[in-house]
Each structure stands twice: as C-alpha cells, then as structure tokens.
Design a protein that fits this description.
This protein is an alpha/beta fold. The chain has 16 helices and 17 strands. Helix 8 runs parallel beside helix 11. The radius of gyration is 21 Å and the shape is globular.
Length: 454
Amino acid sequence: MAALIHTSRRQFLQGVAVAGAGILLPSARAIGYQAPSDRPVFATIGLRNQGWAITSKSFGFADFAALADVDSQVLGENVEKVAKSQGKKPDGYKDYRKVLDRKDIDAVMIATPDHWHTKIAVEAMKAGKDVYCEKPLTLTIDEGKLIEKVVKETGRVFQVGTMQRTEIDQRFLKAIALIRDGRIGTVKKVTCGIDRMEASPVIPAVAVPESIDWDFWLGPAPKVPYRALPEMRQGYGGGVPLYSNCHYSFRNWHEYSGGKLTDWGAHHVDIACWALGATETGPSKVSPVSYKLPVAYKDGNPVVDDQYNAATEFTIRVDMPNDVELIITSEGDNGILFEGTEGRFFVNRGKLTGKPVEEMKEKPLPDGAIEAIYGGKVSANHTANFIEGIKARKQPISDVWSHNRMLEICHLSNIAMRLGRDLKWDPVKREIIDDAQANSFLSRENRKGFEVEI
C-alpha cells in the first residue's frame, strides 16, 4: 500500500486540482475571501507558542470561531487575545472533538505536542475539515503513511507548518534557485546545522497544575506522572517550568516528540531535500557517526523516566540519491551549507552568504526562477498559501508527501541513535532493510481510549 501511495502522489495532487469544482467545502463562505462574510472559518487546537503564532498570522485571511486546549489557563488567555484581535470572541473548548463536531468550521490549525498530531488530523479530515498542522507532522513514520492515506481518501487540503518554504524573505527559495541554476555545479554535500539540546537534571513527579487536564494532555502517550522542577522558563515559551515533561519541554522526550532532529530538522532537512529534488524518494542509509544520549538505553528505550531522553549532541550521515552526502549535526551554525563541484554557500533565517550569492549582483537569477520552484507567485505567508489551496482545492506548498519523505530521515536518525547502529532504508517499500527490531520503531501503539479513529 505504501508503494501505491508513493507512486500515485503526483497524479493525486493533479487530480485534486482538476476535480476541485466537484469537491464541496463545508460552507459556501470558503469560496471567496474579499468581504468579511466570505472569509473561511477556522479553529485552532493547541494554543501555546506556535498555536498563537499561526493563529495571529491568519487573522488577515480567516475568522476564528473556536479554540481548544487542555490547559484552561492557556485557553482562557488565548480566547481573550483572539477576541481582542478580531473583534469577536471565539468559543473555547477543552475537548478538541467539540470543534470537529461543528459544521460551521471549514478548517483547523493544529499546534498540539507532536504525539497528538496524527489522531487530531485524521479525525479532522474525516469530519470534513481542511487541516494546517504544525511540524513535525508525525511522531512515527507509519503515522505519516496513515495521514497520506486519509488525505487521499477524503480529498482534504493539508498544509504542514514548514513555513521556511514560503516566508523568511524567500531566502530558502533563493537558495534552491541557486542550486537549480547550477551556480555551485553538481551538489556533493549538504550540511544541516540544527543546534544541540541541553540535558536535564532528575525531574521529580509533582502535583499537576490545576489548569491542566494531565490525562488528556498525555492522550495517546503512555500514562506517566507529571514531572517538573520549580525553576521557570524565561523568554520564548516562558511562563512554564524550565524542566518538565509538559508544555515547552515536551520536545525533549521521545514519548512526545523527537528532540532537535524533528524540531529544527523538520525545517532544514526539508529545504535540503527540496533542493536536491528528493521529495519523492529517500535515503539508502542513515549512519549515527557520533552522538550523545542523556540517559542510558536498552533495546532502543531509555531505562529511566525522570530525565530528558532525546539526543543532546549528534552528527548523522545520510546517503542520499546521486551520491550526495547529507550531514545533520548539532555542531556549528544553525542553517544549511550547500557544497558542489563549483562552489558553496550557506543559508539560514538571517542570511544567505557565499561567493555564488555575491555573484548574483552581476548575474541575477533568471526571471521566474523562484516562482518556478514555488509553483507560481509566492504567497504572502504560509496561511495565505493554505487558503489559496482551499479555494482551488489543491495541495499547498508544504504537502504531506514531501514532508513525510524528509521527516523519515529525521525519524530514522533518532532510531539509529537509539539502537546505536547504521540503518539501511528501502525508499520504495519505506521500511528498514533486514532489521526487524529497528522496523518495530516505525510505529507506536496508542494508549487505550486514545486510538486513532478512522
């Protein structure tokens, strides 16, 4: 089935665009966006940090009728912020399923912790909603295959929140255009710097804050105690314990996320694969060159449950098609270094540098080069591209297929470190070759009562 989904991706995307006139939105309001009465109606599920970020960036394009979060304090604060911003108060729910039951909501934006993404996204599509879901899209590789299957079955429009494809002053689009125009010759090596993660001290089990429904926050993940230390996080994501197994710190636990590999990796590996033309295939081998896990592991699983367990340092070598070496590392500058037979350059969210970049002053990119990569005029922001997709009934720039293909590299990197060995990958079958134990990590069983309803 996985092979069938892979081979039919391009035909499906084209088919959705052609068949758009025959696919009806839940509401006629989503057909046009010029007047307030014609704007699509959205809801956001999961509201801290990125939940508010993607919601606030969308006020110019959509109206928010509902919000959902299992933390009553976070929910209340965001209900008031949205009301102030759009002039109308949205309804607030602890249970996201009440959002999906509403027929007046055209699309949902999902910014929960990663372990909730697949269940909510699948149920939203089954409920007739289009979906914008934060990255990384999935907790496991098999979850990605399931989402692809449901997108195909339902015909819903699905945008993943890898907004480097659209925003950041088009730096990453320009980088890809340089590659496509041959400015560094044949690409031989790509290095993705994605930062390291700090280990934690032992984090004790403590009383759950009154505002949090801890059992519902855990959802599909195993039932465990709430853990936190008193010190509070400052700056971005602040206002919560610096060390915990909840809220901002969820990314540091394999039970809920994949550490830096699926956090920053979901951005930079995505751009690398796009530049290499590898969005419909995958690697042949993933090798953990060096790495540091903050706790001991046995058979791929941490032996303690009171400290962060995602890798703190790493250098991963990935063998990509056409003999390209992809390095994912916690060393050096955050960003992407492209190296070819005739030059190299570096790109991140703040800069695009190198001799090929300087040479653009005398030899600019060809007219339409960036538009050719993007598939048309670049959207105002990532939500605008999502809504354009809804209107045209076609998949947006960050589709689930290309996202899952690159995210498989990030997931495989984590599996390789957890097991301490190289992994050979079959990009057609989308499975690890001759390694039953490693293949067992391609999926996880959801906790009873939180299975994915399809």
